[in-house]
Amino acid sequence: MLLIENKTSYSEEQLLGIAARNGNSKRPFVIVNKLQAKHIPAVPSETLAYFRQLGSLCAETCGKGEKVLVSGFAETATALGAIVAEQIPNAVYIHTTRETVSGKVPLVEFQEEHSHAVEQWLYCDLTIDRFDRIILVDDEITTGKTCANLICALSGKVKSNVRYTIAALTFSGQLAFDFPCDTAYLHRIYSNEIIIPNINTCEPIIPSMSVQSLERYSPEYLFGCHDILVLGTEECMLPALKFGEQLEQQGFAVCCHSTTRSPILPSEVFGYPLVSRGDIPSLYDVSRRTYVYNLRRYDAVVIVTDASPNQQSEGYLCGALAEFGNDNISISRCRCE
Fold it and tell me: pLDDT category, 321, cuts 50, 70, 90?
């Protein structure tokens, strides 16, 4: 991989790795961002500062007095989009989702054609035609096709002269947007420079269901702990990052990442970014498989989720954590809208 433009102080090795997708012929590789706190544990304060850099670049594309809507793409850019929006005065934030919302009709439906989960929806109760600029945020953009699909779906629902900013941590490939837009990114690479690693995959962990009862998080639960994992779930990434940052401010050493619907092959080959994978039923839908990568032992684990209580899925997630020696596990429920 050749990183030809880097607007941060991090090196290519610190930032990015290439992994092999599991059973996706449309996009056989994935760029794993080591600082994004999605697949790989990262320090939450560093992740949030990194996201804010992209937000500052997005703010520079906005005209004075523009009414701005920011939308992050599910699932990996839900937190990123929110932090971008925080850097733009008076911006409004919503994110797309792969979840159906009971009792609500989506504003638009569109496709992420290369994905393991193609269908996406945007639920929005706002009067969307009041915005002068819409900023679409993703962690990595290779062709811009998903952005184009959403823009096409929004046609007729937004101002005819609305301006777009396309933003991502990483732009890769021969981008050729066929619509007028501004752009903002932190890294630029070319996808034709990317070589899919030749790896010997290690077996994913299929955990047994843990019988331990999860308690709601309380400060007393972390008494005597130092090294803590805050684990988000799928699209619920932002609360985990914000909570992790608060724990850092209290003096804890914190790592943060989240479960994901993205199936990626793990390997113990030197330099490969994902060294283990736990396969678990989703906390949102027990019939759906999700994954958690690169676990290790911590003094304590706090799962931060907006999922309804689900003893079966929570039990298997605890089982995956227990495979790495984690037995001090709590759960904190939040409401994300």
Answer: very high
3-193 and 215-333 have identical folds: yes
* Nearest alpha carbon to residue 105 among 119, 120, 125: 125
Q: Is the pTM of this model over 0.85?
A: yes
140: three-class secondary structure by DSSP: strand
Token representation of residue 119: 């269908």
Answer whether the bond into residue 75 is a cis peptide, omega within 30°.
yes
CATH number for the domain whose boundaries are 3-193: 3.40.50.2020
For the domain 215-333, what is the CATH code? 3.40.50.2020
pLDDT digits (tens, 9 = 90+) for 93-134: 999 999 988 889 999 998 776 565 578 999 988 889 999 999
Amino acid, res. 226? H
What does DSSP assign to residue 43?
A: -
pLDDT value for 172? 86
Comparing C-alpha atoms, which of 151, 304, 297, 148 is closest to residue 234? 304
- Structural domain spans, the chain: 3-193, 215-333
Is 310 exposed, middle or buried, given 0-12, 13-18 or 19+ CB atoms closer than 10 A? middle
CB under 8 Å to 202, separation ≥6 — which residues? Answer: 266, 267, 268, 275, 276
How confident is the model at residue 222, as a pLDDT?
86
